[in-house]
Amino acid sequence: MIEPIYSPAADRYDRGMQYRRSGKSGLLMSALSLGFWHNFGSISNFQNCKEMMHCAFDNGITCFDLANNYGPLYGTAEETFGRLMDVSMHSYRDEMFITTKAGYDMWPGPYGNWGSRKYLMASLDQSLKRMHLEYVDLFYSHRYDPETPLEETLQTLVDIVRQGKALYVGISRWPDEAAKFAYQYLKERDVSCLCYQGKHNMLVRDDNAINLAAEHGAGYVGFSPLEQGLLTNKYLNGIPDGSRMFRKEHLTSDRLTPELLQKIKALNNLAEQRGETLARMALAWVLSNPKVTSVIIGTSSVAQMQDNLQVLKSAPFSEDELLRINEILK
Ligand SMILES: NC(=O)c1ccc[n+]([C@@H]2O[C@H](COP(=O)([O-])OP(=O)(O)OC[C@H]3O[C@@H](n4cnc5c(N)ncnc54)[C@H](OP(=O)(O)O)[C@@H]3O)[C@@H](O)[C@H]2O)c1
Q1: How sure is the predictor about 2, in pLDDT bands with cuts at 50, 70 and 90?
Q2: What ligand 1 atom has the least distance to the C-alpha of 37?
Q3: Structural domains in the chain plus CATH codes
């Protein structure tokens, strides 16, 4: 059967998505971004990838987060993205905010890792080829490199913007002191850091980085808001087949201690009382901080995405609920 050509929902910007300004920039990000770390590589089903992409875009998600080594295998999430651009998304390129990163191991030898100019420049060129793009909207240094002079990494980000290969730059997982240096260095060269990307969720908080970004006029983009699925009802009664923990992909069963399970159950009870799933409540908690610009979700199915999109209808937390959450998490 020939599949009809994708035509996005005409009301995609009227379905309740919020758009938040990234720091003191002109750029608005959808409150939910879609992440390609897992579930979009060469081992994933392309039809499922396409359905998730279309569901995201149909519901007002405009921000798509990638990195050179997302897959598995490395590079293949960007290849899937390139295929998605070809089959249905190229006409909507200007409605999309596409990000990629380099900083972790990507290819063998001394030039395929960390923060040198040699690595970052080559990696972005490769990413653009895989994604079938002329430029990305935002390029991140994926991690702080203690061995490379910060000036070298940061000047490379500046030059990438000057070359027109990225419109904005950002940093991810940089410690506070290095991040302060980065904000200042970039600002002095008129290529302000658009946002900081870090992990922030109910179990792993990143308040310092969030406040530091805000103080320097940068936005904050949060990753792993569900702690890779722990903050959902998925693991309440064991490890389901096919789940990230079952597949042992960056989430191993030793994380699921009896103490943690007790907390997750208590959070799940509270979510039920609020009339929502734990996933939705965990996302609402991250987004309740107005300094968070966007939160990157990483779904493995359209059903999960539909559930997560419901966060846009979540009620604000009452004082009593916040106290109960703090009590559970302490
Ligand atoms: N800058 C960095 O260093 C960095 C690091 C990590 C991630 N990131 C970015 O952040 C994105 C998100 O990270 P993440 O995938 O760890 O996010 P996450 O939202 O914490 O975890 C996603 C996983 O949670 C499960 N899940 C999602 N929604 C669910 C729902 N409604 N009900 C039940 N289970 C649900 C799924 O697990 P199953 O697969 O088991 O179904 C899904 O794969 C990545 O794709 C990437 O773009 C950046």
Answers
A1: confident
A2: 45
A3: 12-239+279-316 (3.20.20.100)
